[in-house]
Design brief:
Order of helices and strands: HHEEHHHHHHHHHEEHHHHHHHH
Radius of gyration: 23 Å
Structural class: mainly alpha
Strand order of the largest sheet: 1-2
CATH class of the largest domain: Mainly Alpha
CATH superfamily of the largest domain: MFS general substrate transporter like domains
GO molecular function: transmembrane transporter activity
Largest sheet: 2 strands, antiparallel
CATH topology of the largest domain: Growth Hormone, Chain: A
Protein name: Major facilitator superfamily (MFS) profile domain-containing protein
InterPro entries: MFS (IPR011701), MFS_dom (IPR020846), MFS_Domain-Containing_Protein (IPR051068), MFS_trans_sf (IPR036259), Tet-R_TetA/multi-R_MdtG-like (IPR001958)
CATH architecture of the largest domain: Up-down Bundle
Transmembrane segments: 50-72, 84-105, 112-130, 136-155, 175-194, 214-232, 302-322, 329-348, 354-381, 393-417, 423-446
Distance between the termini: 23 Å
Pfam families: MFS_1 (PF07690)
Number of helices: 19
Strand content: under 5%
Shape: globular
Length: 458
């Protein structure tokens, strides 16, 4: 992951000189030098609580990744249609989007621990409903509840912000994002192992390859409930959080001289919608296509998606190296072109593509274009925020991404049921082309903003 993405989220941390000032501010507050015991507290990290945060994040993202292979067969078994598949995928994002802001408020009003406990209870109940659902309506309700309880990413980031020293925060944000990606894109590998577990039924409980992901996460969240109670502690406010105000005042003269280019911000938001929307279309119909059109088993489908996720994780971790040679604008363009190549090949009406071609193009989008392009867009967006509420604008960025997942997932299900799978990829091609046009018009502004950033960092 490009560490600059997270670095820009730390207010005004632009140069070595300013980082030195921040380090001094961590040791000094309102002119009062801290004692040695307080200095030791600054370097202390409660790793036990931090590992619990990673566990909660992993379980929340697994609520998407672990169901990718089995969601369509299970929905079909209960009488669901292809159009309902889009709604099924979108409702998870609806629940998550609706609960993100309230949960953040509650974590400030009460405690992070209380919110984590509530989230694990909500997810456990949602997964239980998923496994015992007698009809489609209950199944859809279960995904809303799971989405509502899995909106923990902002809370996890709040813990990292409060519990880590200012100058180590970028590294820990990187760890948290890696855990998030593993839960979403790599854990589908576990479907193969779950499919090998014995099948049994008792009363209203059925354990088989289609319900095993739900039962697994039901048990895992119950265990997490007790782990949070026993081992998680809310972080005490770090001294760096107090010094941030002092540090911001010292740097306010810099920020007041710069205003963001709103054309760049608008273009970045549009590109964010493109990347998140196209990946939502693949998330919606990729596993049903493998199962229905290519007759791949649920276990093998999960294995394929998980392996593509591993490749994506490798690209994700290589971005720090790539960013030494390519800027954010170049990486964004590369992501868009790979997105276009992966979707265009599947949209051309030349008969049914071979399974190898389908997986290859899915890999271009899922494993390469999305990790590179989406990360570069986020990095670019965060870097051009000057003299504006950074948290508010980043919240808009995330909210639009969730909204794109909802709209494009429903669109994919509807287009697939009406016009076949090629209509879904044709829609994606149209939106990617529009995004490339937007990028082309905004490229000059992108370049000027990045040059200004470089001059500011010198």
């Amino acid at each position: 992951m490009d560490s600059r993405i997270f670095e820009e989220k730390i207010p005004l941390l632009h140069s070595k000189k300013e980082r030195s000032i921040a380090s001094e501010d961590d040791q000094q507050f309102n002119g009062t030098t801290l004692n040695s015991g307080s200095n030791r507290n600054m370097s202390y990290i409660d790793w036990k609580s931090l590992l619990v945060v990673y566990l909660v994040t992993l379980l929340s993202e697994s609520s998407r990744g672990l169901f990718l292979a089995s969601q369509w067969p299970y929905l079909e078994r209960l009488g669901g249609s292809k159009s309902l598949l889009g709604l099924f995928v979108a409702l998870f994002s609806v629940g998550r989007m609706l609960s993100t802001v309230p949960l953040g408020f509650l974590s400030d009003r009460f405690s992070i621990k209380a919110v984590f406990i509530w989230c694990t209870i909500c997810q456990s109940f949602g997964h239980f409903l998923y496994c015992v659902a007698p009809r489609v309506s209950i199944l859809l309700l279960s995904r809303v509840l799971v989405g509502f309880g899995s909106a923990t990413m902002s809370i996890s980031r709040a813990h990292v912000t409060k519990a880590t020293p200012l100058l180590e925060r970028t590294k820990h944000f990187g760890y948290l994002s890696a855990v998030q990606f593993v839960g979403f894109a790599v854990l589908p590998l576990a479907n193969g192992a779950l499919a090998e577990l014995p099948v049994f039924s008792w009363a209203f409980i059925t354990f088989d390859p289609l319900t095993s992901p739900g039962w697994t996460l039901f048990v895992a969240n119950l265990l997490a409930f007790f782990i949070i109670i026993l081992h998680y502690r809310d972080p005490e406010p770090t001294l760096s959080s107090f010094s941030n105000d002092n540090f911001t005042k010292q740097s306010s003269s810099y920020s007041s001289q710069h205003r963001p280019d709103f054309s760049v911000l608008g273009a970045s938001l549009f590109l964010n919608v493109c990347f998140r929307g196209v990946i939502a279309e693949f998330e919606t119909i990729s596993s049903p296509l493998m199962i229905d059109m290519y007759h791949v088993s649920v276990a093998d489908t999960g294995f394929i998606i998980g392996m593509l996720g591993c490749i994506g994780l490798a690209w994700y971790l290589s971005l720090a190296w790539l960013s030494k040679f390519l800027g954010d604008a170049q990486l964004t363009l590369i992501g868009l072109l790979l997105l276009l190549l992966g979707t265009l090949w599947l949209a051309i009406p030349t008969g049914r593509p071979s399974f190898i071609i389908f997986v290859f193009n899915m890999g271009l989008v899922w494993s390469v274009a999305y990790p590179i392009g989406q990360t570069a867009v986020l990095s670019l967006f965060s870097k051009v925020l000057k003299n504006v509420p950074v948290g508010g604008f980043l919240g808009v960025f995330s909210a639009l991404g969730s909204f794109a997942r909802i709209v494009f997932a429903c669109l994919a299900g509807g287009l697939w049921s009406i016009g076949g799978f090629r209509s879904v990829f044709t829609c994606a091609v149209i939106f990617v082309v529009a995004s490339i046009v937007v990028f082309a018009f905004a490229f000059t502004s992108f370049r000027e903003q990045l040059k200004a950033q470089v001059r500011a960092d010198v």
